[in-house]
Amino acid sequence: MKFVKFAMLAIGLTFAAGSMTAPAFAMGDADKGKKVFNKCKACHQVVPGKKSLGPNLSSILGKKAGTQDGYKKYSADMVAAGEKGLVWNDKTFVDYIAEPKKYLGGVLGKKKAKTKMAFNGLKKAADRDNLLAYLKSVAK
After folding, report:
1. Given phi > 0 = left and psi -120 to 50 = alpha, else beta, which region is 137?
2. Are 60 and 131 in contact (CB under 8 A)?
3. Cα separation, 104 vs 6, whole angstroms
4. Which is the most buried residue in 68, 73, 78, 127, by most CB within 10 A?
5. pLDDT at 90
């Protein structure tokens, strides 16, 4: 009888664990992300209100692509992606920053889109997750 109870408990735990959902992306490390941001800071800022060559990233999450307040130099494809409904969230940002032109092209139904970024993307998933964690840590 003890074996049956043990077996039922094991089956129940297996189903419970299987029904849990994993996060859409791995949690990153904000301190490591700050170092990754060094690749971005030539063109981007995270200090609210501070201007630079590219849009300020201090509050990008939750915003429609191509609409950051105070920044007007977006590519036509970035604006078009926002008009098609692209909103920056954890998943869209991490996917975009892996291969910006290819990701944006996918949103627009093209092979590659035109962006004004000279940057070609972060190839390591850990770097992308860490960068996202850093941006969340400085979000205003």
Report:
1. alpha
2. no
3. 52
4. 78
5. 97
Cβ-proximal residues to 77 (8 Å cutoff; 6+ apart), any chain: 104, 105, 108, 110, 113, 114, 115
Number of domains within the chain: 1
Contact criterion met (CB below 8 Å) for 88 and 136? no
pTM of the model: 0.79
Q: Note down the domain range covering 118.
A: 2-138
Q: What is the pLDDT of residues 56-77, one digit of tens each?
A: 999 899 999 999 888 999 999 9
Round to whole Å and give the CA distance between 70 and 112. Answer: 26
Share of the chain above pLDDT 90, in %: 66
For residue 12, pLDDT beyond 70:
no
